[in-house]
Amino acid sequence: MTWQYHAPVVQIMAIYQELLRVDEVLSLPPYQEFSPDLLQAVLDEAEKFASEQLLPINQSGDKTPAVLKDDEVMTSPGFKDAYQAFIANGWNGVPFAPEYGGQGLPWLVSTAVSEMWSTTNMAFALCPLLTQGAIELLSAHGSDEQKEQYLPKMVSGQWTGTMCLTEPQAGSDVGAVATKAIKEGEYYRITGQKIYITYGEHDFTDNIIHMVLARTKEAPAGSKGISLFIVPKFLEDGSRNDVKAVSLEHKLGIHGSPTAVLTFGDDGDGALGYLVGEENQGLKYMFTMMNNARLAVGVEGVAMAEGSLQQAKAYAAERTQGGVAINQYPDVIRMIQGMEGEAVACRVMAYLAAKGIDMMHHHPDQEIKNKQLALVDFLIPMVKAHSTDTGFWSASEAVQIFGGMGYIEETGIAQYLRDARIAMIYEGTNGIQAMDLLARKLVVNDGLAYRAYRDEMQQWIEVASGGKWTLELTSLLEQISGITDNLRQAVSAAPEKAASVAYDYLQMIACFTGCVIHQRVVLLADEKICSKATSHNFLIRTLPKVASNITIIQNILAEL
Ligand SMILES: Cc1cc2nc3c(=O)[nH]c(=O)nc-3n(C[C@H](O)[C@H](O)[C@H](O)COP(=O)(O)OP(=O)(O)OC[C@H]3O[C@@H](n4cnc5c(N)ncnc54)[C@H](O)[C@@H]3O)c2cc1C
Known about the structure:
Blueprint: H1 9-19, H2 22-26, H3 36-54, H4 58-63, E1 67-69, E2 72-74, H5 79-88, H6 107-141, H7 144-156, E3 160-164, E4 180-184, E5 187-198, E6 208-216, E7 227-232, E8 243-248, E9 259-264, E10 271-275, H8 282-318, E11 320-321, E12 324-325, H9 330-362, H10 366-402, H11 404-407, H12 413-421, H13 430-441, H14 448-463, H15 470-493, H16 495-500, H17 502-521, H18 532-558
Parallel strand pairs: 3-6, 4-6
Antiparallel strand pairs: 1-2, 4-5, 5-9, 5-10, 6-7, 7-10, 8-9, 11-12
Helix pairs in contact: 3-6, 6-7, 6-8, 6-9, 8-9, 8-10, 8-12, 9-10, 9-17, 9-18, 10-12, 10-13, 10-14, 10-17, 13-17, 14-15, 14-17, 15-17, 15-18, 17-18
The structure holds flavin-adenine dinucleotide (FAD).
């Protein structure tokens, strides 16, 4: 089957205007020249690029993965040309500062645009996603000289970036990184091996800037002894640095994205690396860009939910059984409505976090900035884990709607299922997200992050007050606050037990947030975001899940 893609631009604009008060973002100092019309124009152009340039090479990228030959990678057919078109159109620099050549648009918009790249070609979209992470690291922690040297070319996309954290013994436990960095005058000699490096080698550009975590000679053990280095593939004088891809992984999905094993210093004394900031602060630096990177991966989940929904709807309208299109059968309607309701909920959650990122950076009032930062901190692990769980679940529902045609590779819907699975693993597994929510976000600053979330939810409930679900949601929020207090105590009194319900807590929060979103949507005058039937269905089926998660957590904690 040939895929069709229609970006949900009408829905996105309605989310901006009717739920998220986009005017609050557009009145922030850096964004005052942008109007809703301009945002709409950006989204329309992005849809065009995604459907005309990225979608047509999505299935071929799946069938013809990148190959490694003589240390060089040849990417899937059409990917290199698409990348050239991508950067020529300025898409690489959407959220970045105009002083480095970026478009300076809000993250709220950049997030919607990135969703379109991932929906139409997740394997391709990973390249700009990783470059984005590297740009943010350098913007926040690089010296003026480093910023001048690297940012203009990375923002334009002339050079790409990677994030080199993982080693065979250092996955979730990043503190176990063993790659070595030995100081030699102005620079360091880097030796070691990194695995699973996304776009660690490719043929899109003539240089790749690796952001590498390594350990200096006298560094303390564990996470306190990790430093961050810039390791370019090509050095300033044009010579090749001693970093190379020794193999590419054969993966379940995202075949068009080359995932490399990289070695540093295989041919001599070590690759040249340049320290970012101070020694031993590498993990701290990584944390500053984690919110955005985790949001970006959460958005991949939204993208997979949207893509599989669109294909399933199109198939169900065409496929007949028993003399009627299968989309007339209540069980198929149940699946489609369920996918639709979840896609909307996850999209709004992700955009709420993106708006928070804009507000926490640019709002003139420090108190509001702090509160938005706390809200973002709370939302991010939920967005990352729940949206990526949903992306995979939605792809699985789509396979079900395709029936036998879903299970065979020719129709291509199986690609969504395979592609979607990785987002639950990288950028901190979803289990690690749940632990982050429980053991860090509930605890630091005496629960400030939860309070910011609770206040936000309260406001949303109040805006729709008098609705059918107001009383139930208000009561659930009280119960959630009570259980959050209990859990905060359990984190120190019985950490193992608390950790065992971390995922239940994350799911409870995600289901509740989705219900709060849909009770607003169901009361809107129009159906631009989704039909009232879809929101109703979501609320009826999801509210009991919140209650059931509360019971699970209470019962397990009661055994303390
Ligand atoms: C296709 C692909 C692309 C990738 N791209 C990159 C990249 O560009 N750069 C990069 O640096 N890395 C990359 N990674 C690596 C990825 O981030 C790691 O695979 C991920 O962080 C998990 O580490 P691990 O595989 O070692 O699993 P492990 O850490 O061994 O985890 C295995 C299981 O144990 C659980 N677990 C582990 N520790 C804990 C704990 N403390 N508490 C609770 N549960 C725990 C995990 O949740 C998971 O379920 C990529 C991986 C893949 C497959």
